[in-house]
Amino acid sequence: MLCGPLSGQARNKKVNNHILYEMPMTSLVAYDGMEHTEKALEYAIQHSKVYKEHLYILSMITSKDELDTEVEMEKVNAYMDKALKKATAEGADAQVILESGTPAKGILDAAERFGADTVIVGRSDKTLFDRAVLGSVSDQVVRSAKCVVIVVQ
């Protein structure tokens, strides 16, 4: 499956007797309500507005136990509602997506499924040791994505 403009439907536009093919563009931001993803969300909103892209705000639930916990779901729904309200209030064409699974794989799968031209992720404050032992979601996404990835510090 393709990421980006080749996966969307072209819109034709005639300008000065030439036909231009405009592809719908989309971006996807990984968001979990934490500080590093707040910065990524802010960047993604501005990016979406500047490039007139649809913005998908994705949150991954990593444990099925969280789905069973009403309090946890209320927390996730609250920060996702807040993110959507922020994006739309600032003029972005946005929608939220909530999925379960591992973060890096989920981000990559969603980017392909929704035809994202750009994936925007935040970088956490993990130590070098933590990154070496545990890995980094942003590093995995950068290495494996088939589209542009922007890492927000």
Topology:
Layout: E1 11-15, E2 18-22, E3 26-30, H1 35-50, E4 54-61, H2 64-68, H3 70-89, E5 93-100, H4 103-113, E6 118-122, H5 128-134, H6 137-144, E7 148-152
Parallel strand pairs: 3-4, 3-6, 4-5, 6-7
Antiparallel strand pairs: 1-2
Helix pairs in contact: 4-6
Which keywords apply here?
five-stranded parallel sheet, 7 strands, alpha/beta, two-stranded antiparallel ribbon, disordered N terminus, 6 helices, single chain
Q: What is the first-to-last residue Cα distance?
A: 29 Å
| Series of secondary-structure elements, N-terminal to C-terminal | EEEHEHHEHEHHE
Helix content: 40-55%
Low-confidence stretches: 1-10
Describe this structure in words.
By secondary structure, this protein is α/β, with parallel strands linked by helices. 44% of the residues lie in helices and 27% in strands. The protein has six helices and seven strands. It has helices spanning 35-50, 64-68, 70-89, 103-113, 128-134, 137-144; strands spanning 11-15, 18-22, 26-30, 54-61, 93-100, 118-122, 148-152. Strands 5-4-3-6-7 form a five-stranded parallel β-sheet, with helices on both faces. Helix 4 runs parallel beside helix 6 (137-144). Residues 1-10 have low confidence and may be disordered.
